[in-house]
Structure formats: C-alpha cells, structure tokens
Amino acid sequence: MNFGGFVPLSTVDWPGRAVCTVFFRGCPVRCHYCHNASIQTGEDLRDVEAVADLIRSSRLVVSGVIFSGGEATLQKQPLLELARASKEMGLAVGVQTNGVFPGTLRALIDEGLVDRIALDIKARWEHYHNLLKVKPEVVDKVKESLELCKEAFLNGTLPEFEVVTTIFPGKEDDVQYIAREAEGVDFVLQQGVEGSISPLTFEQLKQIADKIGRGVKIRTREDGEVAYENNRIIIADSIVLTDIMQARRNL
C-alpha cells in the first residue's frame, strides 16, 4: 500500500472507543482546509503485512482500527486486506471517506468488513465543482456512496454511519441542503479550522442546528462532540478509556 502514517492510540477518531489509525497516502480531491495535505500526494510503499503488524502491535490497548487518509478507499485491495486482517484480530473496523470510490465501500459492506463509516459531504452538490474543482461524475460517485451507506445502515448491514460536514464562516447556508441528504442517519456539524480564519463557535453551530430542525452532533476543538437537538444538549461525549483499562487488566 501507499502508506501515509500510523497512530497507535487515538481516543478521538471513534467516539467512545480507543482505536489505532492507519493513514493511506493519496487523494483525488484537494480540500483547501485539509489537515493531512502532506499525504495527498507522494509515495511510501509498504507491504500490507507490515502495516497489519503495526495494527497488531496496538491490539492490547485498542478495540478498533480507523482507516483514513488521504483517501483510504482509493487503494481498494490493500484496504480490503487490512480490514480482513483487523477483523481476524477481533478489532472493529471504521473508515473515514470522501465517498469518491463507492465500489470500495460496497465491497467492504458486502463482505461484512466495516462497522463504521464516516462520510464527509463537503457542500451542497452544485457547489462541489467550485469548491473542489471536480468533475460532475465525481459528485455522482459521492451520491452513490451516500445512498449505499444509508441503505446498509437502515437495513442493519452497517452498524454505524454518519454524514460529516465541516463548516466555515460564510458556508452556513449549505447545511440545510446537506441535512436533507442525511435524513435518517447521524449528521455531524464539524467546526472548520483553517489558518487565521476565526472558526465558528459552539454557540454559532447550535444556531445552525436550530435552523435545520433536527438532532445533530456538534464537534469543536473546545468541547469535543456533543449531541444537540431542540435547543438542548442531549449528551456531552466524554472520552471513556474502557478499552485501555480492560487491556491493562489483561496484561
């Protein structure tokens, strides 16, 4: 695989679960706010088994693995092999994706290799071209990924699915359009952070949520993840290190 990096322990990539995170190098889109821009391009080829060994080295302190990027689904076969290896280790598997490769997501779902998918929808469909300079057929691929993930989630084939939208000042109006596409599934309003631009505050994100009239999860650097609906906080998600404590007892 074209390797982008490895984090042996994370308590933020999968709320409520301690995981390790594998980054895949390479991505077909260029988000101006990407925090992993250094692995959008370049090459660092690693044997898949060597990367599986990295995951294996974290097994005592995690209960899952997240595959991220770059764009993990760009590398279909390495991702499938690592998902299979992770399942054999008894780990839950999560994927963070921009949805450009629905065929990879379908293969993961059909083989029962994925427990959680976080799909990043970046704007209303008609804004994708100006924002990311992608062709219309790319937007069609993201739409396909959304529909197949929603179907799998609603029929119980995919245990966890969420649509994530990163919001910057001036882009608030897109949220109501994306919320319609995310009907019936978890919808995350994520605070966009870029350079010297002042990010939206938690209170401003709450106001956006109030306008769309549905429950959401709000993620900010200051407050972590909070479930919110009808002008009230439902659950403040504190990091629970149950997996780590259990692993220590097993040592």
Q: CATH first level: which class?
A: Alpha Beta
Lateral strand order in the biggest sheet = 1-2-3-4-5-6-7-8-9-10
Count of β-strands: 10
CATH-level-4 superfamily name: Aldolase class I
- Mean pLDDT over the full residue set: 90
What does this structure look like?
With 251 residues, the protein is of the alpha/beta class. It has one domain: Alpha-Beta Barrel (TIM Barrel). It is built from 8 helices and 10 strands. A 10-stranded mixed β-sheet has the order 1-2-3-4-5-6-7-8-9-10. The chain is globular, with a radius of gyration of 18 Å. The C terminus is likely disordered.
SSE topology:
Blueprint: E1 3-10, E2 19-24, H1 48-57, E3 64-69, H2 76-88, E4 92-97, H3 102-110, E5 116-120, H4 128-132, H5 136-154, E6 160-167, H6 174-181, E7 186-191, H7 202-212, E8 216-220, E9 224-229, E10 232-237, H8 242-250
Parallel strand pairs: 2-3, 3-4, 4-5, 5-6, 6-7, 7-8
Antiparallel strand pairs: 1-2, 8-9, 9-10
Helix pairs in contact: 1-2, 3-5
Summed up:
By secondary structure, the protein is α/β, with parallel strands linked by helices. It is built from 8 helices and 10 strands.
Supply the key terms.
ten-stranded mixed β-sheet; 251 residues; globular; alpha/beta; 8 helices; TIM Barrel; single chain; disordered C terminus
